[in-house]
Design brief:
The protein is α/β, with parallel strands linked by helices. 44% of the residues lie in helices and 16% in strands. The protein has eleven helices and ten strands. The longest helix is centred in the N-terminal third of the chain and has 35 residues, at 2-36.
Length: 304
Amino acid sequence: MAENGRSRTLLWIVIGGGVFFLFVLAVFTLVYLTLHAGGEEASLHSFGDKIGVVELEGVIIDPRMVVPQLKKFGDDDSIKAIILHVNSPGGGVAASEEIYRAVKRVRDEKHKRIVTSISTVGASGAYYIASATNKIYADNGSVVGSIGVIAEWVNYGELMRWAKLKPEVLKVGALKDTGDPSREMTPAERAYMQSLIDNMYGQFVQAVAEGRHAKTDDIKAIADGRVWTGQEALSMHLIDQVGDFQAAVDDTAKAVGIKGEPVLVHPEKERRTLADLLFGDISEWLPTREKLLENQMGFYYLWK
């Protein structure tokens, strides 16, 4: 009798375990399908006249996602034009510049029309990039501008002194440890840092002036870090037209001679299998020592 009870208990454990496994499998399958649902509207193999759409979203840290997409669409003759769909407050100075140069290559070397459609935010580094495109669209309420440079970090020297911790630094070069967060900057270090920021600021102003076909002094007069609405930006010639993404699509299609509704092509997303989700390498999501060091200090075209 006891043996039968143990058998039934074991059976229920097996059944329960199987049901739980199926439940977990269903959840991961649902996540997988969600990640791939609504991916690209069309592929490069679709028929009809095509416009490539590249998303520039969030803080710009790594250009390695956007630059290859721009290059691929720029090299493909079936793509008649590119729309850079922007919703970003900007980001790293160097990362923004890399994308900016990729946009310029498409525009100047490939002679392919590339325009910007700003949705919610197109500020600082994102606007830096947009300035290189043939035309900028934004909604009336979009946030546009913030031409400026910022560098900031936390000075935790007081905390270290409270904890009776003393940093030891060996260096060659008086300015080698400029920005050390465990102490105050010297006047010489502050002047040095300001000179770097001033130089980056000059590059930003020059790039916008060139892209917007404006005088450097005119851009510099409004380049104080402020943002404006799309409506204000239009009167300041920082954008070319008030309009949403669909307006940018329709207008761009006409500009490149596409008749009828164009096919919108989004870059192919990396396809992950269910096994990748369950057993894949997640190291790219973990903070490495190098990433933590990068977060200590940096120069940014960023609206905050």
